[in-house]
Amino acid sequence: MLSDWLQKHTPRLVTPQCHLCKLDKQPDDHHPRWCGSCLKLFELVPRCQRCGLKTVTAVEQCGECLANPPPWHRLYCVGDYTFPTAGYIQQMKYADKFWFARDLSTLLASRIEEPASLVTSVPLHWRRYFHRGFNQSQLLARYTAQDLKLEHAVLFKRIRSTASQQRLTKSARKSNLKGAFAMKNTSFSAMDYSHVAIIDDVVTTGSTVYQLCQLLLEVGVKRIDIYCICRTPEPSG
């Protein structure tokens, strides 16, 4: 009977569930997406503050950064490109679930201790933008800037379409991206924004953000930070 069905299923319909584990959320679970137990999967781990890679203990600069410092000052991330962050990145980019950018940005914003005065993003080539319908990095930048009450602007444009960076070595990635970007607004003044953050969904070798850092340094930006959802070790070779 209908009354029996309602009695059986109504608690399930009205009780919020964790998006990750699918279990009913408890009264003290205040996050709109995840329960308290699943939120622990996003907890901070020791990292090098400069490159963002895992370390035994948290350090300002690891040995590699001391020997070969990247052109940015600090990298903030949510986690590695592993479960569960990798799954949300994949769903956002390849399954059109762009709304996950909101939740991921909130996690990222909570990690940032010294916010930049301006947040920008890695651009997509217009062909890829047309195919996907949105730029996930731009969404992340917009929401992160909102959470931190910062200014957000599109500073770069992609002037050359490139092959996917996946499965490429570090040297191949660098070569693949050479000359792929340019400043979108030639009147951008570093006098107004001496501290700029570039946001991307995933940073692996850093080849993409390296190219964008060079453009900012050329126009006089003094400090550059990198914000990303996933920081993953670069492939061998």
How would you sum up this structure, described in words?
This protein is an alpha/beta fold and 237 residues long. It is 35% helix and 15% strand. The longest helix has 13 residues, at 2-14. The protein is globular and about 55 Å long. The mean pLDDT is 88.
Topology:
Blueprint: H1 2-14, H2 36-39, H3 63-67, E1 74-79, H4 85-94, H5 100-109, E2 118-121, H6 126-132, H7 136-148, E3 151-152, E4 156-158, H8 170-177, E5 181-183, E6 195-203, H9 207-218, E7 223-231
Parallel strand pairs: 1-7, 2-3, 2-6, 6-7
Antiparallel strand pairs: 4-5
Number of strands: 7
* Number of helical segments with 4 or more residues: 9
Could you state the order of secondary-structure elements as H and E?
HHHEHHEHHEEHEEHE
Biggest sheet: strand arrangement: 1-7-6-2-3
Provide the β-strand percentage band. Answer: 15-25%
List keywords for this structure.
237 residues; alpha/beta; 5-stranded parallel β-sheet; 9 helices
Nutshell version of this structure?
The chain is an alpha/beta fold. It has 9 helices and 7 strands, in the order αααβααβααββαββαβ.
